[in-house]
Fold this protein.
Amino acid sequence: MSRYVAEYNVNKSDDLIKFIAEDFLTKEGFQQTVYKGENVWKKGIGAVTAPQFIKLEYGQGKVHLEAWIKSFGEHGLTGFYGALPKSELNSRVQNLVRLLTQEIPDAASVQSPSTMDGTAQPIPAPVPVAVHNPTSKATVSIITGILSIIASLYIPLAGVILGIIGISTGKVGKQSTAKGLATAGFITGIIGLVLGIVIWVLNFVLSFMLLTS
């Protein structure tokens, strides 16, 4: 039981590291909190799956990153126990690291826009920075949302599970450029979840009535 710990030399300013990290973590549904006296980012409350934690410390172009799930202690990114949330957290960590270590051109190498007479403007052109755009979550959301409605009619438990996935991925996907798709997935996920619960309860009640009749 231990955390995933790694150091990265990203060669970026503290402000840029802060911007990239906060943009990514916020879009992924993490919230800043204090955990055992540490300032961390947390996702989930443990009702459905183990909460995920990411801790970042940075300075002078270097990033110290820690990641773990909490379920009967702290667990890193490997091992059979908690494989699903570990896999999700590992994917998030790798995407965050990819964004933090991206190659960014020097401001001097970016051509500034020109004025009408062809001379360069005195204000430097903005340096392009890739930010998190979770469109894949929007796609997963609409697929699982639709499947949850269909599955609820035949296997209510499967519909409930798929509905939960559709809702959770839809919440993240709404932070992407595919917001409309994610919203549709979020809504269909809710419908599938409610429908699955209702049919599940009805099946239980009918079975109970048949047994007692």
User: Anything to note?
Assistant: The chain has a mean pLDDT of 88.
